[in-house]
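Recap quiz, item 2
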Amino acid sequence: MGLSLLASRALRLSRIPSRATQIFLRPIVSTRDLNTPEPATSAAPPPPPPPHRHPVGGARVHFPTPDDAIEVFVDGFAVKIPKGFTVLQACEVAGVDIPRFCYHDRLSIAGNCRMCLVEVEKSPKPVASCAMPALPGMKIKTDTPIAKKAREGVMEFLLMNHPLDCPICDQGGECDLQDQSMAFGSDRGRFTEMKRSVVDKNLGPLVKTVMTRCIQCTRCVRFASEIAGVQDLGMLGRGSGEEIGTYVEKLMTSELSGNVIDICPVGALTSKPFAFKARNWELKGTETIDVTDAVGSNIRIDSRGPEVMRVLPRLNEDINEEWISDKTRFFYDGLKRQRLNDPMIRGPDGRFKTVSWRDALAIVAEVVNQVKPEEIVGVAGKLSDAESMIVLKDFLNKMGSNNIWCEGNGPNPNADLRSGYIMNTSISGLEQADAFLLVGTQPRVEAAMVNARIRKTVRATHAKVGYIGPPTDFNYDHQNLGTSPQTLVEIAEGRHPFSATLANAKNPVIILGAGIFERMDKDAIFTVVNAIAKKHNVVRPDWNGLNTLLINAAQAAALDLGLVPESDRSIESAKFIYLMGADDVSLEKLPNDAFVVYQGHHGDRSVYRANVILPASAFTEKEGTYANTEGCAQTTLPAVPIVGDARDDWKIIRALSEVAGIQLPYDSLGGIRSRIRTVAPNLLEIDERVPATFSNSLRPESSQKIKPEPFGVTVENFYMTDAITRASKIMAQCSALLKK
Amino acid sequence: MGSVVRNALNSIKEKGITNFFRELRQQGYLNALLDGNLMQTKIHNIGATLVGVDKFGNKYYENLKVQYGRHRWVEYASKTRYNASQVPPEWHGWLHFITDRTGDELLRLKPSRYGAEHRENLTGQGDEYIYHSKGHALNSGQRDWTRYESWQPTKP
């Protein structure tokens, strides 16, 4: 900029702006009225009180202590809010949505984007509402010329260094900056200089960075350090040289890293697998749940035609808040690979040959009618829904066999006491806990959302965490008490220092991992844990802190439905084995002449041993009920059509029963659900958590001896746990790059 | 005219009568007996200079002694089915007096880096020559709309 230009600008500014000069000078703001904003107090006639507005998003205000309510005025309308609310929250209660970039409900307050400026009476300057505590009697003005001009100015500065690449930006259409510049920004710019540019960072295979678009709201930095618990991201530099980055070149190694894509208000952090694949307005959203772990995170599947394009979290305060794990968010490309789309029969030459459904079912029915009933075995996979599991159980029971179980539940699961296999505290209930005892479980890889909840609690209340198991990675402070069940005995007998922590705790929580189900001495471990619970008052009428953390989506429903095998050695004597998506069941001991039917959606592990393959639908393609680890039943909804010639799980078994001559008495999902009602009515209470009726202390004491062998690692690879995630290329990349 | 007859007699002497008639047929003189256009072109060619031959075999002639505007013409490679769309783009400009650079010069000046090969317009030549868009039932290069990969039993 030349000196003469500066001089002329100074001269122009010193002159009193008149109507005539305004024609030649570019106005500072687009709206004529905002050129000379005056404090709202000078407005002579008081406007009539505005009509009652509802809080933003239909939110409800919770008053912890009713005496602490204060009254503020937002745009002349009085609202009651609890003490400690910020001005922004007060405005939200009043139904006024304040524009913001850096403020996020679940993160600490930064107050650095300045977008939320409002006018407060008797305040000389506009105040940043997100960082300003509301005081009694405060008069907040959100719609005055000063507030509007402040927003317009902030927006102009934000857009100064923001590239105008919306047409090639993946955030386009769902970008906060785009929306808010339309709503609150100026309709013209005065910017003629060069924009700055920032080097892109490599955050790994999931998060794509275009750092030039960053507006330094620091939401991602706060998310990483507060929620994800990894100190990877930070702020470097000052002023216009400020940039977000990892200080040294480093990948973001958090199992929640995908959430920074959602919280980034601009297109600086976007999804790498989704990059340039679709625009958000082309997508159809289907609100369903996730089945890759036992948490049952609420998700929205965005699909375009027959393809799942991306997975986004859905708000559910009781389960996943508004986060999901990386596995949930990025496994979806596994749905497009290795799919079984035609019924196949293994010929005498050992090769598979595509056949029609009629032929495939006829062969299965012929074989199943030839073998003895006790030689029939059924295994439900970890992704099975409750409906298909009850149909499979009914089918096998009608054939005369009772050897059916769900993989992951161990050799002889105990389905008698529901409190023995679900999370009795409930996931949101963990926030009240003040001491955790994790027994043989690594929640960070087994259930990332539960781990995030524990971390939230530990961060908020400094709860003590004791952990018994092999050394593993935690993202919060913990004590490794030992590796074997022997430590449990010490705690039960009060010889261990951690028993003092449990004794002092008001709401202690014990979480047992599902890996214990596979141990031979599981009953003894449950007995010891029950003793600890009894001693430290873990189970009270108002508090139940004795939990089991499951790892598979089908586990809880399978135990609810009573999928318990008659003998734990049934697989060794099986002549006919029906695998319903069971890929992790060990088939080594299966006799060579056994007839294996594999019904599933992915050609994964068990399919190579199968004699007949019946293609089924994946969870994104069917309606099915799943119970999560806390016993909350939820349903999936079909987002995309079924691939190829596949069919729903329950329909296949229903058709098979008819071909086999023992027709099952239902032929619709409604019919199956009324059958479920007689077995496990809690599975029909959709989206409602039904607590267990009987306490786990009723479990009979076992005379088993505890074995000294240490607890194992249940989930070896967080990213690849089931048939879908094992087929996913993105998950394979993640496990190659991010697995520690 | 006398020179034409002399040249013809000379070449019969050189090549023999069979070869002479074969060449006569190949160069379209037999077609020219029935095809007035071709006959006129052949008559024009006498005394004209052959400026160049393109990759399809079309010959481009110029005769500056004839009336201006009629001094450039093409003798198509095909003597039976010829039409104007057989002229490739590099010669089109020269032939239509848009440029004085011949097609060969243009190719030397600006080598083509990309672009489809020139094809004559085959309208009316039969169904197999009609353009069908991607996804049309008659397009041989059918687009695969399957959005998933199926499991292949032969793979390990």
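Chain A touches chain B through 19 residues (CB under 8 Å).
Confidence is low (pLDDT under 50) at residues 1-8, 10-17 of chain A.
End of item.
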